[in-house]
Amino acid sequence: MANGNGSSNDRHTELGLKEEDLVEMYRFMLLARYCDERQWGLNRQGKAPFVVPVSGHEAAQVGSAWAFERGKDVFCPYYRDLALTLVAGFSPKDVFLGLFGKKDDPSSGGRQMPAHWGARDRNIITGSSPIATQCLHAAGIALSKKLKRSDAVVGTWCGEGGTSEADWHGAMNFSGIHKLPLVLVVENNQYAISVHVSKQVAGSVHGRAAGYGMPGAVGDGNDVLESYKLTKEAVDRARAGEGASLVELLTYRHYSHTSDDDDRTYRKKEEVEEWKRKDPIPRFEEYLRSVDLIDDAKIQEMRDDAKTTVDEQAKEAEQADFPDPSTGYDNVYAERVEVR
Amino acid sequence: MSEKNLVQTVHDTLFDEMKRDDRVLVLGEDVGARGGVFRVTMGFLDEFGEDRVIDTPLDECLIAGVAIGLAIDGMRPVAEMQFADFSFPGFNQIVQEAARIRYRSNGDFSVPMVIRAPYGGGVHGALYHSQSVEAFYAHVPGLKVVVPSTPYDAKGMLIQALEDPDPVIYLEHKKTYRLIKGEVPDERYTVPFGKAELRRPGSDLTVISYGLMHHLCVEAADRLSGDGIEVEVIDLRSIFPLDIDTVLESVGRTNKAMVVYEDNKFLGAGAEVAAQIAEHAMFELDAPIKRIAGPHVPAMPYAPTLEHWFMPSVDSLEQEMRKLADY
């Protein structure tokens, strides 16, 4: 395969990304997309009651996650962050164990709805359903890292709807005041379930950073390299002790908010089609071709591999055990407290 | 051993614990230069510095949420809610996050944090500086809610709270701060949660209470002693875990039970105590369980006449105890 470094199209070398980074990023985007397609299929078959789709967000998530150092940095994601969670260390099987609510679901052992990610050994902090609560946990962890003189950086993600919550503003304010090693990423897909960003945000998301004394960047969240670049600048800044940053990545979700939603009541078909033409995966493929990193045969091979991996691991997860009902009282407290 | 009031004891204990364990830090409104509006963290800033004595923005949601993050990353935060009445902007973080994190992660994460909150009335605090919040939080599995009523317990239970691997709501009745004094050992000790204390033995009826009300109950019981009525008084100390066994053992002997709490009566913490007595000791009882509690109004009013009307008093408790004894 040709070396892309000499190409005039090359945008990745100056970002410090190597060829193997790009191939891995592409692989994660494919895995996320096939996980999504598989989980929708399982939902339609009646095997998965609830699905949170990721399709459309893969570039924003993989690009921003790639800016962090796995094993050291901390991830506080939100429910749509399937692709990000894969980068942070989940296997597709882990995703599907959660989807089915199985005993070995790393996030919760089948206690939470699907897509409520968390695993201590992967530095992914447990999340809930109320919006943007994780942003304050991220600020607290970032303060702890600072007090410990660690150079770890904390990242937290939410949608543009999350930026209306007090928790998000508190995290912005506190991390601005204390110059915390925190990066707040907003995946702005323009809709909080049905409410358009024009009714959600006065001014702009990235513009809010100025009010909290931190830089606010905005960029194309369907471009994985731009998502990486903006987030990496923020991570570098945080690691250098220069404080928190806000990164707004503009993107779009291809499907409804969840499997229980119907986006046809609030989004025009033409708008959805228009954004599907900006699909981050073909766009990245186009880039990889332009720098001679992959060709059509390699693309087909990687797509087939990803699909096979997802299908096999989804099947393994489907066959795994459910939690035993006798464990229902476990882990309320460190030690069992009986109530008479 | 030295005699101290309750607020001084909280101050001294927290100070000693921060000396002892670098992971312990305090955060809240005015905890730094001001030393807290009740002076609980007076002198802390000079001793421990800004890293461990954190004046937060005026945002209780932030205080709770940041404390959770600190706890997840191995620190031992003591978050101060300036008044329990102001804890509600942090309610979601406390109830949905701190309380549920161990369960929802199936034990992968835990939140060893303490939330201190001055609560209770009788201090001219009106609607928003008088509330009893224990029932809101004790309802939530995953939280522990404790209410020390003596300096001895204030020390032992604060240390226990710091050693507890789960989130603890530590409530301090404002009126007991300077009113209640007692002997406090100099050495370090803990008072376990879920152990009620039988503070006044008696044979005619059992009165169960906590916080400021406990002291009022003891005073009323002492008055009745002269008339040959011996009231047994139990201080619950911890709302959750609840030591119902001590209560049932006592009621099994006295055969009469009165539950006293300052919160409004409907669904207050004492309602659970009364229900458990009814559930487990119905046939031991010689009289209906009596509950004495606050009126069903949105919160304590300001005017002295109205405040007095709201709060159970020693006089009213004495009368009610006499009636139950004579039943």
Could you please describe the fold and organization of this structure?
The complex is a heterodimer of chains A (340) and B (327). Chain A contains 11 helices and 7 strands. In chain A, strand 2, helix 6 and strand 3 form a beta-alpha-beta unit. By secondary structure, chain A is an alpha/beta fold. In chain A, strands 1-2-3-7-6 form a 5-stranded parallel sheet, with helices on both faces. Chain A has a two-stranded antiparallel ribbon with strand order 4-5. Chain A has one domain: 3-Layer(aba) Sandwich (Rossmann fold). In chain B, helix 1 runs parallel beside helix 7, helix 9 packs across helix 13 and helix 10 packs across helix 11. Chain B starts with a strand and ends with a helix. Chain B folds into 2 domains: 183 residues, 3-Layer(aba) Sandwich (Rossmann fold); 130 residues, Rossmann fold (3-Layer(aba) Sandwich), CATH 3.40.50. Chains A and B meet through helix 5 and helix 6 of A and helix 3, helix 4, helix 5 and helix 11 of B.
How does the SSE layout of this entry go?
The complex is a heterodimer of chains A (340) and B (327).
Chain A: H1 19-44, H2 58-65, E1 74-76, H3 82-87, H4 92-100, H5 133-147, E2 154-159, H6 166-177, E3 182-188, E4 191-192, E5 195-196, H7 208-211, E6 216-220, H8 224-239, E7 245-250, H9 269-276, H10 280-290, H11 296-319
Parallel strand pairs in A: 1-2, 2-3, 3-7, 6-7
Antiparallel strand pairs in A: 4-5
Chain B: E1 2-5, H1 6-20, E2 24-28, H2 44-48, E3 53-55, H3 60-72, E4 76-80, H4 91-98, H5 101-104, E5 114-119, H6 134-138, E6 144-146, H7 151-163, E7 168-173, H8 176-179, E8 181-184, E9 197-200, E10 205-209, H9 212-225, E11 231-235, E12 238-240, H10 244-254, E13 257-264, H11 269-281, E14 290-294, H12 304-310, H13 314-326
Helix pairs in contact in B: 1-7, 3-4, 9-13, 10-11
